Amino acid sequence: MAATVKYDEVEVGTEIPATSYDVKRLNLVMYAGASGDFNPIHWDEHFAKSVGLPDVIAHGMFTMAQGGRFVTDWVGDPGAVLDYGVRFAGMVPVPHQAGNTIVISGVVEEKLEDNKVVVGLTAKTGDQKVLSQAKAVVRLA
Amino acid sequence: MALNTDFIGRTFPPSPPYEVSRVKIREFADAIGDGNPIYRDPEAARAAGHPDVVAPPTFPIVFSLGGDYFADPDLGLNYAMVVHGEQRFEYKRPVVAGDALTAQATIADIRKAGRNELLKIVTEIRDTAGELVVTTYNTIVERGA
Q1: How far is A1 from chain B (nearest CA, A)?
Q2: Angle between helices B22-31 and A25-35 (to 10 degrees)
Q3: Is B8 helix (H, G, I), strand (E, B) or coil?
Q4: Which of A24, A53, B19, B119 has the most beta carbons within 10 angstroms of its beta carbon?
């Protein structure tokens, strides 16, 4: 595969700079359609508030996908992702018009055999952590 | 309502093959805001060593639960109280356009966690040759009333 980051050029502790990903209502409507998850808590503000949520919230899988995007943009090839897992730790409310921002950063936590590394991810909106135990195993060049 | 622990270890029949198309991959990539050409342009994908456009790592969520088994009233899952707890994708190879993939789910565990209950589902996704492509691990949380 065509990863562009070289195994020999990263160390445990190598940081991947933070990137911000905007999320608007339109993104959630598109994600609902693409994924097939039409739960109204992700697009109907009245419904979301009626079940006690602060606002429409992003699909957890939308947030996980942003983490995936962060990793694949770093490594250079989506095919280099061998394992990717997260725990959903917090909601991403998506207010009308203003939307929200998910900020993701990463660090190389471990170097494995066969040019593989473990990347730990941090994903936040404001001070709220939205993913925990988020890790990807990727094969570098 | 407690989940029925008799379902632990139950493996459901595989889904009919899900046909992975270039159009669906592009739609999914658009929805997550990812403009990577490897998700859109077969030439870019081939240049990166793939047979066709590649699906983003989280794409198998589209079909990985493969069926309505979790709506079985005997299981007792109340969808109105469900949130997604954990998700993991373990790849043997990338998913690419042209794949036809079956998803076979097993309920790996049901257990209490405080007032909540956790339902852990492991799904094996295989190609038409029967080769394992990706295993997904999904934890669903049913919030306690």
Answers
A1: 5
A2: 150
A3: coil
A4: B119
Band (B102; pLDDT cuts 50, 70, 90): very high
Number of A to B CB contacts under 8 A, please give it. 109
**Which chain B residue has the Cα nearest residue A68?**
B57
Q: Could you give the count of Cα atoms lying within 13 Å of A24 in the half-sphere of its Cβ?
A: 4
CA distance B31 to B27: 6
Which of B86, B134, B135, B137 should one mutate to test binding to chain A, selecting the residue with the greatest count of A CBs within 10 A? B86
Report ipTM for this prediction. 0.96
When scoring B32, B65, B120 by the number of chain A Cβ atoms within 10 A, the one with the most, hence best to mutate, is B32
Residues of B in contact with A78 (CB under 8 A): 36, 38-39, 54-57, 94
* Option in B48, B83, B88 nearest A84 (CB): B88
Distance linking the first and last C-alpha atoms of chain B: 9
The whole-angstrom distance between residue B23's C-alpha and the CA centroid of its chain comes to: 19
Q: Does A60 sit within 8 Å of B83, measured CB to CB?
A: yes
DSSP code of A52? T
Q: Is the sign of the CA dihedral B113, A48, B78, B72 positive or negative?
A: negative
Residues with pLDDT less than 70, chain A: 1-2
Considering the entire predicted model, what is its pTM? Answer: 0.96
